[in-house]
Amino acid sequence: MSEQNNDEPKTVNRRAWLKLFGAGAASGVLPLSGAAAEDSMSGMHHAAPKPASAADEPVPVYAFLNGDEAAFVEALVDTFIPADEVGPGALELGVAVFIDRQLNSGYGRGDRMYLQGPFIEGTPEQGYQLRMTPSELVRNGILDLNAYLRGKYKRTFDGLTEEDRIAVLTQLEKGEIELPTVPTAIFFYLMYELTMQGFFADPLHGGNKGKASWKMIGFPGIGEMYADKIEAYRNKKYMSEPMSIQDLL
Amino acid sequence: MATKLKPVDIAIVGLGWAGGIVAKELAATGLKIVAFERGGPRATNPDFMAPQVHDELRYWRRHELIQNLRKETLTFRNDPSQLALPMRQLGSFLPGEGVGGAGTHWSGLHWRWTEWEHKMYSGTVAKHGRGIIPAEMNLQDWPVDYHELEPYYDKFEKVCGTSGKAGNLQGRKIDGGNIFEAPRANEFPNPPLTQSHNMVLFEQAARNLGYHPFPVPASNASRPYVNPDGIAIGQCHYCGFCTAYGCEANAKASPHFTVIPLAYKNPNFEARTNSYVMKVNLDSRRKRAVSVTYLDAGGREFEQPADLVILAAYVFGNVHLMLHSQIGKPYDFKRNTGVVGRNYAYQSMGGVAALFPKDTYFNPFMGSGALGTWIDDFNSDNPDFAKLGFIGGGGISSGSNSGAPISRHPTAPGSPRWGKGWKKAVVETYHRMTTVGNQGSVMSYRQNYLDLDPTYTDSFGRPMLRLTFDWQENEFRQMEFAADICANIAKEMGAEQVLSRRGRGRYSIVPYQTTHNTGGTVFGDDPRTSALNKYLQSWDVSNVFVVGSSAFPQNAGRNPTGPVGALAYRLADTLKDRYLKRPERLVSV
User: What residue segments make up the domains of chain B, in order of their start?
Assistant: First the structure.
């Protein structure tokens, strides 16, 4: 949790929140859950850019992440891929919603992983050997990291300045922070991969809103047929309005 | 307690290319055939329909068409001194699941192996003497040569509508085709696919350097085609969703719409999907298979008696069933005896990434699975083994397969991996990066093998298969040699920067490399070094045949599906012409 939130009401539901602060305040960045504890307010304080038409943006509803976790994931994806002059950031593209859905899916619950023991630490070449599903790993990793940050900064990740968030992620990437439950490298790369997946995946899965990342790099979407173009466009830029799965249904 | 079913004539385990071809070819016999497939039924409609099938997250990252490890996986270690641990997540290779098997999600590179690639031992000894073979290397010949397989290679190309250009037509070398290929009786059924920009550059660069580039034989059809069985194959759209995906256009040949529907022409053919075969049961003398035990989707156990059992699962499935059913002598690494699990091999995927000047547009999203230009100048036995210090070779190529951006968003070296500046780096690089790859052969060694794991069991309670594998000196030398060739070609193509990953790291099961696993139920002429005779028949249990790349004594520097199909067609002929007329041991010991 972030310290700034201590004065917020102890519980609040989504409707009451909207009534109190107006839909414009709940601008696609707020991790609201039905019975939010004080921690769930933390999302409102991070430095995410607001979408231009914030009033029209639906409030993200998280099915898996609790308020603390949602605040963490929102701040994380916003740090990994911030909005800048090149294009929109991961947060406004719905990457936190993507991650929430993935963690709540069969993938997140490890439905295609072998999760029987004995669990023994192997060599790097032998790959993942933990008992945890991806969802459990993320949950425990967030608890681990926020506990560490409370000790060091008196803040959870979402309450840190942008500069400090970048510093923390850099330390995680370099393995300079040791987490008690979840190996740092595994946690870092899982969050990194999930962020990249949400940023680039078909919008069907909740991220990459408006196919913004595809437009940014010049990927023409998933509905193109190039039999008559592959020769004509040799070493030529090919432009088209990208289509997603939903666009073509 | 297993429910015992009414006997059938033939039980086939696995319904990919190998099992599908055998089932189709035996349809005319009218024999009662049951094929068991661990995954579900698959049809182009409804399973591979656009736009949903163009979902990179679902198919590439979440492995929709791949083996479910929760049910069945293997353990892995690099060497016999280590404790093997389970492969808990998919990585290095992606075995298929469901009707069509890996044939639904392959790329479509459709090769004939060269004459030497079927006779690696005798071909190498004839040229260089025995002394060139390292002590630990189990170099072995196939018990059949290319010429015996040629009609089957030909047949399989025609069934798939393979697109390519002959380089050796009945001994006549043809420029623009692969002049190093073995002589073929016929031209490819379809002309080559259209080249992408990087392929044009690769072809010119290779020619400049004195090499012999040619289009990769692709079972992605370059034009609409009706195969000799009357099956319509669509024209490839170059949509860029091929490897790991099913094809909505039926342009990528797959058993689910070619051979398998024809197996149903036999009113006595039945496919039981979502059915895991646990074991082949033998008679009390352990000389004859009497039945297979399997579980249906609900976990109910059945025993299916059969006169003939054909194992046509993926490499690991075939070896696992042989070991678990105690068919043939298991390989014992310590004593270097036994045959089942011996001679496991893999393939090395190396090469370079090449960054071209600003305003270069490779349009990586315009592509198909097997779209590539290739050279064999350093493949097969074309390299001078004595001079270079390795046996084997690699195919070197540049292709255009997919631009789907979860998996492909390269950045130039030194760019940030995230945060400010990362997006700029991706945008600047996406269109101007390509690759020149090496697909290297891997020999078989005493210390690389498959056996049963002493600790871990799968969800059915069976001991898991244990994979022991690492790269060896011979393969490192091939990879390093080829990386230099790849780098030179990339420079000649006009690359601004050539990025090569170097290092002699151990084999890791974590990153995806290739689903070209081979060996474990090798076929040969000597029962001391092979599990199967030259007809793919178990030396020990004569009514068990095994077909697939598990029969390959070692791996070549090219894809395995072509010879898998050829072996399956040959097996069908063996059964029709010989075994079914007189069911007996086809080679005496």
Answer: 3-579
